[in-house]
Amino acid sequence: MSGAEISPPLDPRLLSVLVCPVTKGPLTYDATTNELISAQARLAFPIRDGIPVMLPEEARSLEG
């Protein structure tokens, strides 16, 4: 393959069962950054190779 790799979209069924590991609240999918967003925790969890990385230490802070 050449050029930038494009991650597949997140399966909506997976999104419906995942919750924020910090707050246990809902997550939303941000297609532009390919992250799962926890508005309550103000964290963005990355999705790598189609797999959500739900570790708080891997999340990006949305503060600021």
Automatic annotation (TrEMBL):
- The name this protein goes by in its record: UPF0434 protein AOR01nite_09960
Mind telling me which Gene3D superfamilies this protein's record contains? 2.20.25.10
Q: State the family it belongs to.
A: Belongs to the UPF0434 family.
Query: Which organism's genome codes for this protein?
Result: Acetobacter orleanensis
HAMAP family per record: UPF0434
Source superkingdom: Bacteria
Q: Which PANTHER family match?
A: PROTEIN PREY, MITOCHONDRIAL, ZGC:162634
GO annotations of cellular component type = cytosol
Q: Which residues cross the membrane?
A: none
Q: Which residues form a coiled coil?
A: none
